[in-house]
């Protein structure tokens, strides 16, 4: 998947304190340091390994997108708690737990959407049983997927709590 944002990359030599702060935050939650930081205008803060496209630039690798609007209204500690939470999703502790399950579920979902989009005419008749089995599998997995997502979010919150004060997370 490709993430589209309105933003620009921040160069380490232009903002060394920001990169040092993010590096310390990544170390605190046990996550890899992002390959690049993108300052965005959208109010969504996220960390992704997907390709990121913005204006006239393209990035691959680990990208941390930091929203400028949130930086104006949150304290440094509050912003740090959000950054820590997003970085924690990439930590080895979180990725190891359930990574195989997530990959299998994502592969089944991609297969079902690809088959459904390509099934036309007589071919649709042949793929209908496969789509039925995939739909059953995906529906059967939904409670486990929801529980795993929830646990992942809670684990990211716990990891962010290591990097930011408990008071900041509660506000």
Notes on the structure:
The strands form 2 sheets. The protein has a 4-stranded mixed beta sheet. It has a 3-stranded mixed beta sheet with strand order 1-5-6, with no helix packed on it. It is elongated. It has 7 helices and 7 strands; from the N terminus they run ββαβββββαααααα. With 171 residues, the chain is of the alpha/beta class. Helix 1 packs across helix 3 (76-88), helix 3 (76-88) packs across helix 6 and helix 5 (99-118) runs antiparallel to helix 6. The two termini are 33 Å apart. A hairpin with a 2-residue loop joins strand 5 (51-54) and strand 6.
Beta-strand content bin: 15-25%
Low-pLDDT segments, ≥5 res = none
General form: elongated
Helix content: 55-70%
Which class of secondary structure composition applies to the elements? alpha/beta
Termini separation comes to 33 Å
Instruction: Evaluate the radius of gyration.
Output: 19 Å
Order of helices and strands: EEHEEEEEHHHHHH
Number of helices: 7
Strand order of the largest sheet: 2-3-7-4
Number of strands: 7
Major sheet characteristics: 4 strands, mixed
Task: Write out key terms for the chains shown.
elongated; 4-stranded mixed β-sheet; 16% strand; 3-stranded mixed β-sheet; 171 residues; alpha/beta
